Amino acid sequence: MSKWDKFVKSFITNEGYKIALSGLSATLKIAFFGFLIGLVIGLIIASVKVAGEQSKVAKIISKIGDVYVIFFRGTPIIVQLLLVYYVLFPLIGLNNIDKLVVAIITFGMNSGAYVSEIMRSGILSVDKGQAEAGRSLGLGYSMTMLRIVLPQAFKNILPTLGNEIIALVKDTSVVSFIAVVDLTNAFQLIGSGTYEFVVPYLILAATYLVITLALSGIIKLVERRLRTSERK
User: Fold this and answer.
1) CB 143 within 8 A of CB 134
2) Which of 47, 60, 92, 133 has a Cα-to-Cα distance from 151 of 20 to 30 A?
3) In angstroms, how far is CA 181 from the centroid of its own chain?
4) What is d(CA 15, CA 212) in angstroms, rounded to the nearest whole number?
5) How confident is the model at residue 225 (pLDDT cuts 50, 70, 90)?
């Protein structure tokens, strides 16, 4: 029996495709919801950092944000995943939480550290005159950021944010360390059924490639739409 025939038997006959679809769903959920959490965390940290000179409270929160960013950017995602699952959640009494939820939260916190720096650079790239104009119109700091600065910053950092979500999709392959069946783990299980891993791993690589290319295409489409709206 050829390698391909073994794969077909495991994937179709033995219903390995169900495991693959479940793994694909887990991968996309972790990347998507993790990115959303990271976007919220990153926006909060970046806004506080930019406003660090506004008050003593903002300065203190900004310093806490610095520690947060240093930790999550300075340690491997695998270590963070293990710490959250085996140390943090048990300490606060969450022993029976769903492993997928743990993965989403961990990836969200990790992404937040990177997104915060992306957002901060995007905010600083907007001309200060824009914020001053908003304040002169009677808008407070928060409304000026929300209505004037952030929309412009978002356009500037969209490609970098796109790279972040693509990186999250690829990084999800480590969640098997806490027994989450993601896309990578699913194809490992499919290969283990016949002890033949060549075809499953080639298809796994192709699947990741298709996902990342699709995301890249969506990001480019959004960029093109934004540029078109600017011209109008």
Assistant:
1) yes
2) 60
3) 18
4) 26
5) confident
Residue in 150, 162, 160 with CA at minimum distance from that of residue 218: 162
Q: Based on the number of CB atoms within 10 Å of its own CB, is 145 exposed (0-12), middle (13-18) or buried (19 or more)? A: buried
- Averaged pLDDT, 147-162: 80
> Which residue type is seen at 132?
E
In terms of Cα–Cα distance, which of 162, 163, 155, 157 is closest to 227?
155
Do 164 and 35 form a contact (C-beta atoms < 8 A)? Answer: yes
Q: CB-based contacts of 93: which residues, under 8 Å, 6+ apart?
A: none
3-state secondary structure 79-98: HHHHHHHHHHHHHCCCCCCC
Q: What is the pTM of this model?
A: 0.86
